[in-house]
């Protein structure tokens, strides 16, 4: 199932859900969030459930939630959207924007070089 981007408030709730072992109760999410009323948190959890990001189960007086999408998978989708929309899918464009006023550290450059080599080697292995 393809997921869509989620608004900032819902992402904040997902961050809390991802930060704790599953399942997590709506009361736990409210306690962790700390600044919204329980009803607001319930509304956000309901939206996330309708969007397919969470599964919910009622146990006793509370609802418990389990993520259907991992944090890593969501960030991969969100980052892909960002790079496509703002940098026309260009790694060079992204890097230029990130480092327009500075230069990456030697450590970052070394890690990037290693990553690029690994990607290149993996791509070469896929040639038929």
What does this structure look like?
This protein has two domains: 8-67, Winged helix-like DNA-binding domain superfamily/Winged helix DNA-binding domain (Arc Repressor Mutant, subunit A, Orthogonal Bundle), CATH 1.10.10.10; 71-124. Helix content is 59%, strand content 11%. The protein contains six helices and three strands. It has helices at residues 8-18, 26-33, 38-50, 71-87, 91-98, 106-124; strands at 24-25, 54-59, 62-67. Strands 1-3-2 form a three-stranded antiparallel beta sheet. α1 (8-18) packs across α3 (38-50). The chain starts with 7 loop residues before the first helix and ends with a helix. The model has no long low-confidence stretch (mean pLDDT 90).
List the helices and strands and how they pair.
Layout (H helix, E strand, L loop, with lengths): L7 H11 L5 E2 H8 L4 H13 L3 E6 L2 E6 L3 H17 L3 H8 L7 H19 L4
Antiparallel strand pairs: 1-3, 2-3
Offer a concise description of the structure.
This protein has helices spanning 8-18, 26-33, 38-50, 71-87, 91-98, 106-124, and strands spanning 24-25, 54-59, 62-67. With 128 residues, it is mainly alpha-helical. The protein has 2 domains: 8-67, Orthogonal Bundle (Arc Repressor Mutant, subunit A), CATH 1.10.10; 71-124.
């Amino acid at each position: 199932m393809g997921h869509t981007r989620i608004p900032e408030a819902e992402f904040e709730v997902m961050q809390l859900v991802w930060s704790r072992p599953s399942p997590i109760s709506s009361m736990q999410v409210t306690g962790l969030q700390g600044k919204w009323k329980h009803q607001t948190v319930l509304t956000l959890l309901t939206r996330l459930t309708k969007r397919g990001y969470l599964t919910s189960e009622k146990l006793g007086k509370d609802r418990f939630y389990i993520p259907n999408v991992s944090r890593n998978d969501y960030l991969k989708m969100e980052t892909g959207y960002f790079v496509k929309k703002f940098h026309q899918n260009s790694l060079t464009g992204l890097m230029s924007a990130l480092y327009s006023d500075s230069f990456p550290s030697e450590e970052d450059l070394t890690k990037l070089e290693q990553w690029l080599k690994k990607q290149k080697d993996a791509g070469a292995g896929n040639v038929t």
